Amino acid sequence: MASPAPLIRPLSILAALGLALALAACGPVEDEGPSCLPPEAFEGPERTDYPTEGFGTEVGDILDNHSFQTPEDMPFFVESLYAQPGYGLIMLVTASGWCTACIEEQPKLQALHDELSCRGLSMMVAIFQDEQFAPALALDARRWQERFDLTFPVVADTSFRLGAYYDASQTPMVMMVNAETMEILSIETGYNEANIRAIVNAYL
Fold this sequence. Notes:
The protein is of the alpha/beta class. The protein has one domain (about 55-204): Glutaredoxin (3-Layer(aba) Sandwich). Helices cover about 30% and strands about 20% of the residues. It has a five-stranded mixed sheet with strand order 5-4-3-6-7. A hairpin with a 5-residue loop joins strand 6 and strand 7 (about 185-190). The chain is globular.
């Protein structure tokens, strides 16, 4: 795998990092207890009107309502993530069976999900190829989810629709999306937790 090549918009990250540093300077936050409720525990209307224009593959564009396959071989649309009340950010991650970095990062993704989902971070992993570079199937999504015991959605990107957003040789891709507007906030190749946390702190 080639070295990570960030594609994120510089000003967005600088602003996010600046806000994160400013928040840190305010001092420690009072302990709110050992856990917090997940966003789905709060009442609120679902978002039902998915954007219909402005689609594109760059930062600042609207993420198209792509279709994937669930581990049960059922259709799964991006709007399923958009419709969840209580979530402010969506984190989409690509993976493949041949990607060593992807395999290594799955426990990190689960830990991040466990920590930040209650703040409003929604997460999904999209498998696009198996170990033999063949297009992923629903079975591959199911095996991936079971292998790493992931508690967030794992889907098969059977047509590799997310390949339009980055160079597959740089897998994994991490995309951060505003859950309310579906605007793409960042696209990075490689797992950079510091940048992810900066965006979370800026938007949640």
